[in-house]
């Protein structure tokens, strides 16, 4: 919104208060909607979640192997060598 020069200061203050009130209402509505969707997805036990509902991790953690994938890997030769020395 462009800054208005002149005009009644009270009108500008009312516009600001109204915009902030709208933002508050939308914030609560969006939070309630997301909460309801999250409950529904947990109840259905879905495998895939919407992208905006997924966990926000670092890029490296998102691309890392899952614990199940790590367990399925064969043991590395360095690890076997270290175990045999002990």
In short:
By secondary structure, the chain is mainly alpha-helical. The protein has four helices and no strands. The model has no long low-confidence stretch (mean pLDDT 87).
Explain how this protein is built.
The protein is mostly helical. The protein has a domain of 37 residues. Helix content is 65%, strand content 0%. It contains four helices and no strands.
* Span between termini: 70 Å
Largest sheet: none
Using only C-alpha atoms, the radius of gyration works out to 26 Å
Mean pLDDT: 87
Order of helices and strands: HHHH
Number of H/I helices: 4
Topology, element by element:
Layout: H1 9-44, H2 59-63, H3 67-72, H4 77-85
Keywords for this entry:
single chain; mainly alpha; 4 helices; 86 residues
């Amino acid at each position: 919104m462009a800054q208005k020069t002149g005009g009644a200061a009270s009108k500008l203050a009312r516009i600001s208060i109204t915009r902030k009130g709208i933002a508050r209402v939308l914030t609560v509505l969006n939070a309630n909607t997301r909460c309801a969707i999250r409950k529904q997805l947990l109840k259905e036990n879905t495998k895939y979640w919407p992208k905006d509902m997924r966990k926000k991790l670092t890029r490296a953690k998102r691309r890392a192997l899952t614990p199940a994938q790590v367990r399925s890997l064969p043991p590395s030769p360095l690890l076997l060598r270290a175990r045999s020395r002990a």
